[in-house]
Amino acid sequence: xxxxxxxxxxxxxxxxxxxxxxxxxxxxxxxxxxxxxxxxxxxxxxxxxxxxxxxxxxxxxxxxxxxxxxxxxxxxxxxxxxxxxxxxxxxxxxxxxxxxxxxxxxxxxxxxxxxxxxxxxxxxxxxxxxxxxxxxxxxxxxxxxxxxxxxxxxxxxxxxxxxxxxxxxxxxxxxxxxxxxxxxxxxxxxxxxxxxxxxxxxxxxxxxxxxxxxxxxxxxxxxxxxxxxxxxxxxxxxxxxxxxxxxxxxxxxxxxxxxxxxxxxxxxxxxxxxxxxxxxxxxxxxxxxxxxxxxxxxxxxxxxxxxxxxxxxxxxxxxxxxxxxxxxxxxxxxxxxxxxxxxxxxxxxxxxxxxxxxxxxxxxxxxxxxxxxxxxxxxxxxxxxxxxxxxxxxxxxxxxxxxxxxxxxxxxxxxxxxxxxxxxxxxxxxxxxxxxxxxxxxxxxxxxxxxxxxxxxxxxxxxxxxxxxxxx
Length: 472
Ligand SMILES: [Zn+2]
Description:
Layout: E1 10-22, E2 30-39, E3 42-48, H1 49-55, E4 56-63, E5 68-71, E6 73-75, H2 94-107, H3 111-127, E7 130-134, H4 141-151, E8 154-157, H5 181-198, E9 203-205, E10 207-208, H6 217-229, E11 234-238, H7 242-252, H8 256-262, E12 270-274, H9 280-289, E13 292-295, H10 297-302, H11 307-310, H12 313-318, E14 323-325, H13 330-333, H14 338-353, H15 361-375, E15 393-396, H16 409-416, E16 422-427, E17 430-434, E18 437-438, H17 443-461
Parallel strand pairs: 1-4, 1-5, 6-7, 7-8, 8-9, 10-11, 11-12, 12-13, 13-14
Antiparallel strand pairs: 1-2, 2-3, 5-15, 15-16, 16-17, 17-18
Helix pairs in contact: 3-4, 3-17, 5-6, 14-15, 14-16, 15-16
Zinc ion binds next to loops.
């Protein structure tokens, strides 16, 4: 006689189900009619829906049998110091925008403003499926940490810093912070200490300098050393235009990436933002040093950085360089949608190389998820749906034009989706967005507060955001 022992289902906190569960595990397995079980904020099982439901009893069941389920996405470059979306004067390049609009806007932001901006940015990113972001240097760090902690998002950040002694000299640089290299390094170390003292496990430190001609070699090397000593992440803008490359060639006789390497400031705890002007040697240096990259395609296109001429996205991807996708400050990109960045990351290199295989849909989806987590050195905790990892989960609604009719979830996501398809978002097992609404924040009130701040700042810096067409 065979006695079948009845096995009691295991109690868990949450189960999320979907028609397609993309795990991004080492074999990139996709479960058709799959599910993810979560306990204490951590993924405890991934498998077929029927098996997971039979083996577990969930306090909360998010049962979406038609949905695509994806690991939380990463935004590899999102400033919280930012300016009014849509108000940036049209037609100017990077330097003109920085001088007339961006830096004056930053200087006008109070601690309260930063608190509101941080909540608003997190609300928008979460709404569109971003669960982790890199903030490349903010001001009023403590207010930012408090705001982000309320929202439940994950982030890496520090205080934005420079010493006005780089290849650009003192011309046109933001003057609301005047520090020498030693004081700048103290500010960076204090920033790491502040984030660690704050003690929220979702908020991690970074050593954040500006980097485009604004920092001395002593500061750049010191910041790189600091990130190694403190086991942090060194974040800076680098090789963002041909003008920057020419400036560094004039000053140092080397291109920006080669110069960082020469002074011993490149290693595997460095995240280089933008990187739109590279040559093959730069790619080899990045690969050999283990440095990481964030690509910001909308920002690059809007500011006419030449990303399809002097970018090396295919070469960097082929070299296995960990690459995140970012949106940059919202005044530049006008959106915080990693789905849109993913589409551009797949398509721009194809046109550049006249090769439809230059960057595959799978590579673009990896950049948005596991690649982004790896670029931020968080890949052991997030970036895939596997037992032991944090339960950062995005559920896409497929019952709309973005994703339906659905045949191949990878192709449909990369080419067709926008953040508006995101229905539900969990971070560490907490349901932060459900049916396209924040569960924690009054999003309408937040938008109204941001509009008030923007109007005040635009008045203070003398920018009129009116359209160029006659307004009657
Ligand atoms: Zn930036």
